[in-house]
Design brief:
eight-stranded mixed beta sheet, five-stranded parallel beta sheet, 420 residues, alpha/beta, 17 helices, binds zinc ion
Length: 420
């Protein structure tokens, strides 16, 4: 019998006669009290039988597993670096319904790693190019798109009808939001994250397994962990991690093998070392332990990042625009222009007259700065330099931040300075 189990929020579990209740449609998803299971028959066409022939001869998949994949609904949060390979492999494998949440448009800087999108897609919504690419990969896959940012208001509604969530987010606020929503819904959360040459993956929110909060009870202070946009990432790394996430999602649907639940996979692409560390469920975890978190909170505020908080944090430092800086430079006003980026960024391009003091060296370099002179600080996008400006002002310097960094300088003043 080929079935799909759907969890709803009403009544108790109902299993029709003939279904093996010891092996529900998905291993690891415990029916919550108040959730009902019902069944949809999933048959495969001749085209599908041919397409999935390498699965059908695989003992842990076979016909029953392939039908299960067809009945499965998997939601990808983000159609970027991690979501790209995950979506492609899940579609190729025959997952019946893929949901995609993203609100971005394809940018040329995405193409170094986001293999769902192509050069001809630049400027197009990511969901559009993702849908077209998935349809070409496998027309049997039904794609549902949510062109929105995942928020506390919409997360439960969007995630409710999915069997597995693949977290491909690039920020802490959405990661905590995804985690808490998964714990509340009892839906497995296949986690992945990447930075520079390093990646992590795990499976959270399985019954008796830990959640993301058990591993990271508190978000890092804002600005402590740079994003990939600030710190860079090797293009192939999300390919590795996203493919591992797809593997875990398929195993969850198939009920095959042993997932990463209770283990955190750590990948170092430079040494090519893979290791796993144990992650235990924390009985004091407010999400999955004490269950104090009964509704979704304001995660931007909680993490002190993007949107409100970081914009807020940048508001308390004085700024000037690139045009104002250009005027000051051409008027030969006497001030120090400090670039707080890394040397390899400096090599890509810089504003004439600047001197390089990477953010990490700023504290040590302050003694040599003249506190009687005005200082203008810049970085790539204005975030690191806002931090530097705040620190300089706290130390008694008359520092001002260049709004928008060298990116906006390139847009507004000097396009010959390359953007990156
Ligand atoms: Zn937990």
């Amino acid at each position: 019998m080929c079935v799909r189990l759907v969890y709803t929020r009403t009544a108790e579990a109902v299993l029709p006669a003939g279904l093996d209740s010891s092996r529900p449609g998905m291993l690891g998803v415990a029916p919550h009290v108040g959730h009902r299971l019902y069944l949809i028959r999933m048959d495969l066409s001749r085209d599908e039988l041919l397409r999935y022939s390498r699965h059908l001869i695989l003992p842990d998949v076979a016909l029953a597993g392939q039908r299960r994949l067809k009945g499965a609904r998997i939601l990808l949060i983000g159609a970027g670096g991690l979501g790209s390979p995950a979506a492609l492999y899940l579609a190729a494998a025959g997952v019946g319904t893929l949901g995609l949440v993203d609100f971005d448009v394809v940018d040329v800087t995405n193409l170094q790693r986001q293999v769902l999108h192509g050069t001809s897609d630049v400027g197009r919504p990511k969901l559009e190019s993702a849908r077209a690419r998935i349809r070409d990969m496998n027309p049997h896959v039904h794609v549902e798109t949510y062109e929105t940012r995942l928020t506390s208001e919409n997360a439960l509604e969007i995630m409710r009808d999915y069997d597995v969530i693949v977290d491909g987010t690039d920020n802490f606020a959405t990661r905590y939001l995804t985690n808490d929503a998964c714990v509340m819904l009892g839906t497995p959360n296949v986690y992945g994250s990447i930075f520079r040459f390093e990646g992590q993956a795990s499976v959270f929110a399985l019954p008796n397994g830990p959640c993301y909060r058990c591993l990271f009870p508190d978000p890092p202070p804002p600005g402590m962990v740079p994003s990939c946009a600030e710190g860079g990432v090797l293009g192939v790394l999300p390919g590795i991690v996203g493919t591992i996430q797809a593997t875990e999602a398929l195993k969850l649907v198939l009920g095959a093998g042993e997932t990463l639940s209770g283990r955190l996979l750590l990948i170092d692409a430079l040494t090519m070392r893979f290791r796993t560390v144990r992650v235990q469920r924390d009985p004091t975890c407010p999400a999955c332990g004490t269950r104090e978190i009964t509704e979704l909170i304001d995660y931007d505020e909680y993490c002190g990042v993007p949107g409100a908080s970081s914009a807020h944090a940048m508001k308390d430092v004085p700024e000037l625009t690139p045009r104002e800086l250009a005027e000051r430079l051409s008027a030969h006003t006497d001030f120090d222009l400090i670039d707080v980026r890394e040397p390899y960024e400096w090599d890509i391009g810089r504003i004439p007259g600047a001197r390089l003091i990477p953010l990490g060296d700023l504290a040590g370099a302050m003694a040599a700065l003249d506190s009687r002179r005005d200082i203008v600080v810049y970085c790539r996008s204005g975030v690191r330099s806002a931090d530097a400006t705040r620190r300089l002002r706290a130390a008694g310097f008359r520092a001002t931040n260049l709004a928008g960094g060298i990116l906006r300088w390139s847009d507004d003043v000097d396009p010959s300075v390359p953007k990156y």
